[in-house]
Amino acid sequence: MSSWYLLLVLLVGAERLAELVVARRNARWSLARGGRVFGRRHYPWMVALHTGLLAACLLEAGLAGRPFVPALGWPMLALVVAAQGLRWWCVTSLGPQWNTEVIVVPGLSLVARGPYRLAWLRHPNYVAVAVEGAALPLVHGAWVTAVVFTVLNAALMVVRIRCENQALATLAPRPAAREATA
């Protein structure tokens, strides 16, 4: 395994720690305004999966002797960088409403700026997670990690997105019931 790949994975880990600092600050902001936390049961699994991704990248690349293949590695590195850009665009667009947990503050409306203004891309942060989770291992040929993370992340995202959609629905005004006419 290349020492620069170790550095890359450590940098992604440092970025994740920075996310947690922002998330804790935003959680305090949200909870002080009456925010409600959703999805507490799946959150530890998400933390474990994302931590496991970083460890597995290093373990597979190192123990299995996965080589750096430039034709694959450089495009995957570009995708990792693009995923980081999209992730932080999401974080800055959501401002204090962004979090690693699902926290909804009553009375706030859905954010419709940044990547969230795109009607066809309802959960852009999860696109960034999926791209990074597949691309980061493949930078150094860790294809088993890429496949396992992608499958487990897809299953987790089904739960997470369902939870988030239900939570966000609490923000939207409910349509008036139609009266039946005879």
Outline the structure in words.
The protein has 182 residues and is mostly helical. It contains 5 helices and 2 strands. It has a two-stranded antiparallel ribbon with strand order 1-2. Helix 2 (43-63) runs antiparallel to helix 5 (143-169). It is elongated, with a radius of gyration of 19 Å.
List the helices and strands and how they pair.
Blueprint: H1 3-32, E1 36-38, H2 43-63, H3 70-94, E2 102-104, H4 124-139, H5 143-169
Antiparallel strand pairs: 1-2
Helix pairs in contact: 1-2, 2-5, 3-4, 4-5
Keywords:
182 residues, mainly alpha, Four Helix Bundle (Hemerythrin (Met), subunit A), two-stranded antiparallel ribbon, disordered C terminus
Could you give the count of β-strands? Answer: 2
Mean pLDDT: 92
Count of helix runs = 5
* End-to-end C-alpha gap: 74 Å
Number of separate structural domains? 1
Strand percentage: under 5%
Major sheet: arrangement of strands: 1-2
Order of helices and strands: HEHHEHH
Helix content percent band: 55-70%
Structural class: mainly alpha
CATH class: Mainly Alpha
CATH topology: Four Helix Bundle (Hemerythrin (Met), subunit A)
Quick take:
The protein is 65% helix and 3% strand.
